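Journal club side-thread
Mid-discussion, someone asked how the predicted structure for our own chain would compare to the paper's figures. Pasting it here so we can look after the session.
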Amino acid sequence: MNKTYSVLLAIFFTPAALALSPLAQRLQTTGATCTATAQGDYCIFRSAPKYNQPVIMLIPPNLNQPKSLILYLHGHRGVCGVTNSTVPANMATRYKLLNQMLTAGLANSVTIFPMSRGNCTDYDNSLVANFPAFAEWADQQLNPSTNTWMISGHSGAGRALANIAATFKDFTKRVEISTLLDAAYSMGSYIGRWQVGAGSNRRMKIRSFYATSSPEAGSIQLQNTIPAQAKAVRSKSYGDHCNVPMTDFGDALKDSSAANLDIAADSVSF
């Protein structure tokens, strides 16, 4: 093959660099480091006001302004292999969070994924205590067109979700869906907090996916105690605690008023 033909092949068949969405481009001007992928953009902040841990924002392709915001909290570090990573994008990619947003019809939303050390130590000790400031920062960065949030967490992050829902009623009034991903542990200690949260927002849906015995019992307790709002759901990964975020994160999002399943993107494997 002659040299000229080889050069032409390289020009025409080398994939073009992926472009960042308009939203990701703006976030880069406020301190984020953003990377474009076929599924969307990963924008990482080294920290947030009053939260000194990395925060990743997952942005669908070509998004300019989100309609709603989604909070995702991981479980205890080191319990599941992927949680050993100190790189937020690795965990988000492993769990296919962006892909699940797209297939759920949430191409108009952004997931905010703060990291925590230890057994959700930073969530329990810092994020919960300063959550109004964290949520305000996220609102300012992303400028959503509605005030709607969804909150979700895996495993031990269920504690933080219960405390956020019960403590910050003004925020909870904005929450459309709360999703526990095999996270309804020790529900006897937290059912009262979920009752308070549900009482402050009668329209909030609580979806508790279970894959193992303790969260199953907690999910059923939630459903029985708050039947008008809470629903226990058997996980597609029943029996595999670590896989629940990969199979069920997106399912609860389909209940969102922001979801547009008519234009949901095809699922793309990482």
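Post-session note: The chain has a mean pLDDT of 88.
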